[in-house]
């Protein structure tokens, strides 16, 4: 699974009035959980907001209460050289991943050079952990998603396809005269954001006198512009104008399938 960051909510460790040896005053750690593996990302600054630097011992712990309570898991103290801006990353051990699976209410504490910076509520399950649950739960979300994917549109090679639908405005479709008996229309499909020409299926829809019309279900597609538009030419077998067509609420409803 692709590694990515999901800002579920910033977990800010509180300000503390303790000198950490390398800074006079207070320090803070602001963090966002990242994913795969479960990683804590943070930044250390002094009380004035100036990023810290150098190597520091950093440890993470999960608790079942905001104060006191019982420790649920913890990483070993790890010497980390801070990056630009005082930033760092520290993976949580596998035991912590299991704890997050099992418990809804957890508080995370950052400990820098043996000084705890306070606890912050872990307000949501990190995406990597949730994805792992879905992947491994028999008959669970992973299976349901696989079943849904199996019903999506595919081409003959098995490649999954996207489905996009639309309709021209009823009563104000931008028909144009092609000849005495034929009106034409360019249908804009750019909102689908297809990168290649999709398969189009169109239908002429209206409330009157379109039973004898032909051509509304025959999209005319040019290779150069096919991924953003198609045209239709409708022959009514008699003199016909765009005003006539819109008066009878002629419009095109369409489906496109592609990528």
Structural overview:
This protein has 259 residues and is mainly beta. The protein has 2 domains: 11-134, Immunoglobulin-like, CATH 2.60.40; 162-258, Immunoglobulin-like (Sandwich), CATH 2.60.40. 14% of the residues lie in helices and 36% in strands. It has 4 helices and 15 strands. It has helices spanning 94-102, 127-136, 141-150, 242-247; strands at residues 11-12, 27-34, 39-46, 55-63, 71-74, 78-81, 87-91, 106-112, 115-122, 162-167, 176-179, 182-188, 199-205, 229-235, 251-258. Strands 4, 5, 6, 8 and 9 form a 5-stranded antiparallel sheet that branches. Strands 1-2-3-7 form a 4-stranded antiparallel sheet, with no helix packed on it. A hairpin with a 4-residue loop joins β2 and β3 (39-46). The longest helix has 10 residues, at 127-136. It is rod-shaped, with a radius of gyration of 30 Å. Residues 1-27, 30-36 and 124-139 have low confidence and may be disordered.
Brief rundown of the structure:
It is built from four helices and 15 strands. By secondary structure, the protein is mainly beta.
Properties at a glance:
14% helix, 4-stranded antiparallel sheet, 2 domains, 5-stranded antiparallel sheet, Immunoglobulin-like, 4 helices, disordered N terminus, mainly beta, 259 residues
């Amino acid at each position: 699974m692709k590694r990515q960051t999901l800002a579920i909510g910033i977990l800010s460790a509180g300000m503390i009035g303790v000198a950490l040896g390398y800074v006079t005053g207070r320090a803070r750690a602001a963090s966002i959980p990242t994913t795969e593996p479960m990683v804590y990302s943070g930044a250390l600054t002094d009380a004035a907001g100036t990023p810290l630097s150098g190597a520091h011992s950093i440890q993470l712990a999960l608790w079942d209460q905001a104060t006191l309570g019982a420790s649920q898991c913890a990483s070993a103290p790890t010497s980390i050289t801070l990056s630009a801006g005082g930033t760092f990353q520290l993976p949580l051990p596998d035991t912590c991943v299991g704890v997050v699976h099992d418990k809804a209410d957890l508080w995370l504490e950052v400990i820098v050079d043996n000084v705890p910076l306070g606890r912050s509520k872990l307000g949501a399950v990190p995406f990597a952990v949730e994805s792992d649950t879905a992947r491994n739960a028999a008959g669970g979300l992973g299976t349901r998603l696989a079943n849904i994917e199996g019903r999506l549109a595919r081409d003959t090679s098995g490649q999954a396809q996207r489905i996009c639908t639309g309709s021209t405005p009823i009563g104000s479709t931008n028909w144009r005269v092609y000849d005495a008996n034929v009106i034409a229309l360019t249908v804009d499909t750019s909102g689908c954001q297809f990168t290649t020409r999709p398969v189009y299926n169109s239908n002429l829809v209206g409330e009157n006198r379109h039973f004898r019309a032909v051509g509304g279900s025959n999209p005319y597609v040019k290779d150069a512009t096919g991924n953003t538009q198609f045209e239709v030419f409708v022959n009514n077998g008699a003199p016909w104008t765009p005003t006539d067509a819109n008066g009878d609420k002629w419009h095109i409803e369409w489906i496109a399938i592609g990528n």
